[in-house]
Amino acid sequence: MKIGIVCYPTFGGSGVVATELGMALADKGHEIHFITYNQPVRLDFLSHNLHFHQVVIEEYPLFEYQPYELALSTKMVEVVRKYSLEVLHVHYAIPHAYAAYMAKQMLKEKGLDVRVVTTLHGTDITLVGSHPNYKSAVEFSINNSDVVTSVSNNLKETTNKLFNITKDIKVIYNFIDVKKYDNANKEECKRIALAKPNERIFTHVSNFRPVKRVEDVVKIFSEVRKEIPAKLLMIGEGPERAKAENLVKELNLVDDVFFLGNSTEVAKILCYTDVFLLPSQTESFGLAALEAMAAGSAVISTNTGGLPEVNIHGKTGFLSNLGDIADMAKNAILIAKEAATLEVFKQNAKKHTKQFTLESILPVYEEIYRSCYKSKA
């Protein structure tokens, strides 16, 4: 099949999932065309079935903010026509599903019928889409997609609660390539470069937006550090990084906290990790937690959004109420203090990820594409 994938080309979960999905589809022989404003950060062009088409936004003095949706829908039309794409798989309702609808209408005027699959990832619904300025457009875009999927049951329920949705939303969990994390663990894991043998390593990975509550990460670690020798790895970039760095200084944790910035080698970094911290305000799924679990890390997280579908309380880690730093710190200490307890949680976490493998999720998306393709016949 010939499939266009539209996503944000960033380190965020939706971009990662879209990129990994596209590469896996290309490996299976499908022709995949990424359409976005920059090359996705994890995109590897080892397969000849992969193509990237950059959306270029022309500067025009009339516009204070350049109209990305217009440039995107125009590029979709161009790529569909040139390469005879059968399906456009758009990740994020705003602006991608909206732009895809416009592209589909333009193509219809030229006698072409491309099918649109929209995957909802979370903040496009819970934070952006539900805003009064965008709600009608999001609702319209979802209802006019040919197929709609969400990454968790919680996100499906939230979408149906916030919008008047007439389409059936299919739940397809996010996935990971567990082999990548197995291979990372097989490589020499130079843990000693970051921590002494008696120190536990805690990690947080995110885009450092307010919703990730990175200051809570530092506060949790501060409490843990009073009981257990430990180090904290902070991976990512974003608007809240400066606040987290300042808090680290205030709490005298400078020697124990490492800000590593963005990385394309998250699997290798996670091989160091004992406990992963994710105290987010909301997570539609919790891909970062799943990646950590695949690398063999226990997880301390909030119980919001789709996280309870990923992190099993008392087995792979613990869930706490939003903002309950004392409970999260207590649970982190419980997991990390004794080596035997830590090992049980780490093994449980790794075992749990087997149900979220690329091998099990990929055929589900293929069947969705095929259903679109068959319905055109």
Tally the structural domains.
2
**Structural class by secondary-structure content:** alpha/beta
Helix content: 40-55%
Could you tell me the mean pLDDT? 89
CATH topology (level 3) name of the largest domain: Rossmann fold
Which parts are unreliable, with pLDDT below 50 for 5 consecutive residues or more?
none
CATH class of the largest domain: Alpha Beta
Q: What is the chain-wise order of helices and strands?
A: EHEEHEHEHHEHEHEHEHEHEHEHEHHH
Q: What Rg is obtained from the alpha carbons, in whole angstroms?
A: 21 Å
N- to C-terminal separation?
14 Å
**Biggest beta sheet attributes:** 7 strands, parallel
Count of individual beta strands: 13
Briefly characterize the structure.
The chain is built from 15 helices and 13 strands. It is an alpha/beta fold. The protein has two domains: 2-175 and 357-376, Glycogen Phosphorylase B (Rossmann fold, 3-Layer(aba) Sandwich); 178-356, Rossmann fold (3-Layer(aba) Sandwich).
Describe the structure.
The protein is of the alpha/beta class. The protein has 2 domains: 2-175 and 357-376, Rossmann fold (3-Layer(aba) Sandwich); 178-356, 3-Layer(aba) Sandwich (Rossmann fold). The chain has helices spanning 13-27, 68-83, 93-108, 123-126, 135-143, 153-162, 178-186, 214-225, 241-250, 266-270, 287-294, 307-310, 325-336, 339-352, 358-376; strands at 2-6, 31-36, 50-54, 87-91, 115-120, 147-150, 169-171, 200-205, 230-235, 257-261, 275-278, 298-302, 317-320. The strands form 2 sheets. The protein has a 7-stranded parallel beta sheet, sandwiched between helices. Strands 10-9-8-11-12-13 form a 6-stranded parallel beta sheet, sandwiched between helices. Helix 6 (153-162) links the parallel strand 6 and strand 7. Helix 2 packs across helix 3 (93-108), helix 3 packs across helix 5 and helix 8 (214-225) crosses helix 13 (325-336). The chain is elongated, with a radius of gyration of 21 Å. The model has no long low-confidence stretch (mean pLDDT 89).
